[in-house]
Amino acid sequence: MEYELGRSFLLRAPEDAELVSFINEFAEKKGIRMGIFNVIGSLKKAKIGYFDTNEGKYTVIELNETHELIATMGNISLKDGKPFAHVHAVLGDEKGNAKGGHLVEGVIFVAEIFIQELIGEPLERKPQESGLALWDEERT
Ligand code: ZN
């Protein structure tokens, strides 16, 4: 799909908010239907997922200590008619070791978020046999 650039947002999310739902709620409030984003900061707790293709579900790793939010990227599209953020994150521990995956949830210590809205026909996530909710594949 092809998009025009829309509004750009740079903001700090509140401490103790949950990052994924914060992005979803911000997108809904601002009427963002498609977008891409990145986040840096620090999370007090996080759940990161690894999608097990055999089981058709996520294995969830719980991190209960503060981790640097080294790199976070994701996109916003529609799921069930509402903005839905798909978020991946690399998290660093006190020794600088990185862990990462699909960010299921994260409790914010600091989160500096950049969101770039995209204007055009929104992509929609649809349930698949794999257990994932995905966009239609682009056919050339
Ligand atoms: Zn994912």
N-to-C CA distance: 11 Å
- Fraction of residues in helices? under 10%
Q: Over all CA atoms, what is the radius of gyration?
A: 15 Å
Order of helices and strands: EHEEEEEEE
Name the CATH architecture: 2-Layer Sandwich
Structural class: mainly beta
CATH-level-4 superfamily name: Hypothetical protein, similar to alpha- acetolactate decarboxylase, domain 2
Which spans have pLDDT < 50 for at least 5 consecutive residues? none
Task: Give structural notes.
The chain is mostly beta strands. It has a single domain, classed as 60s Ribosomal Protein L30, Chain: A (2-Layer Sandwich). The protein has one helix and eight strands. Strands 1, 2, 3, 4, 5, 6, 7 and 8 form an eight-stranded mixed sheet that branches. The longest helix is centred in the first third of the chain and has 12 residues. The radius of gyration is 15 Å and the shape is globular. The N and C termini lie close together (11 Å). Bound molecules: zinc ion. The site of zinc ion (ZN) has 3 residues, from β5.
Brief digest:
By secondary structure, the protein is mainly beta.
SSE layout and pairings?
Blueprint (H helix, E strand, L loop, with lengths): L3 E10 L5 H12 L4 E18 L4 E7 L3 E13 L2 E11 L5 E22 L4 E4 L5 E2 L6
Parallel strand pairs: 4-7
Antiparallel strand pairs: 1-6, 2-3, 2-4, 2-6, 4-5, 5-6, 7-8
Characteristic terms for this protein:
globular, mainly beta, binds zinc ion, 8 strands, 140 residues, 8-stranded mixed β-sheet, 60s Ribosomal Protein L30, Chain: A
